[in-house]
Amino acid sequence: MSSTPAMINVQAIERRRAATLIAERVTRKLIRTIQRLPPGLLEGEGALNLWDEVCIQARRDSPWLDRYKDEIADRLEPLVITLSGADKLMLWLESGPGEIALAETDESTITLLAGRVKVRDIVDYLITDHLTSEMLDYDNGRIRTLTGN
């Protein structure tokens, strides 16, 4: 049975919705983990935890922001590794390399792409498409005081 364009579109929408839910779950878990860590550079300025500090540095467009993202990537990778193969595939298909591979693949054979999934692609996708917006949107009194907003 061949897939019609409408069926493929519905499948793509459902796959993207599932990937978003997985990404949100992993993002929340990572944020909770980082909130339990002490701040570094901004401890003396009033940052309560590392997540506060990351959010402040993101809003300040700090030259240190790439280093913070490296730290986040190091902490995110083990969370991604523990995901099921299906969850990893869903997230990877949303990454740049996954989208390219998907464009070259028939919708009915997506599972064959599982062998091409790379954890680092997923980590990069989560940081770029989910965590960066969380850094900029997360808000509390300490962050507002330290960023002047």
Secondary structure topology:
Elements: H1 5-35, H2 50-59, H3 65-81, H4 85-94, H5 96-103, H6 119-137, H7 141-147
Helix pairs in contact: 1-3, 1-4, 2-6, 2-7, 3-6, 4-5, 4-6
Overall number of structural domains: 1
Helix content: 55-70%
The percent range for strand residues is under 5%
Assembly annotation? single chain
Let me know the largest β-sheet.
Answer: none
**How would you spell out the order of helices and strands?**
HHHHHHH
Mean pLDDT: 87
Q: Radius of gyration from the CA trace?
A: 18 Å
Low-confidence stretches: none
Task: Please state the structural category.
Answer: mainly alpha
What's the end-to-end separation, in Å? 57 Å
Number of separate helices: 7
Number of strands: 0
Q: State the shape.
A: elongated
Summarize the structure in short.
By secondary structure, this protein is mainly alpha-helical.
What can you tell me about this protein's structure?
There is one protein chain. This protein has one domain. The protein contains seven helices and no strands. It has helices spanning 5-35, 50-59, 65-81, 85-94, 96-103, 119-137, 141-147. α1 crosses α3 (65-81), α4 packs across α5 and α4 (85-94) crosses α6 (119-137). The longest helix is centred in the N-terminal third of the chain and has 31 residues, at 5-35.
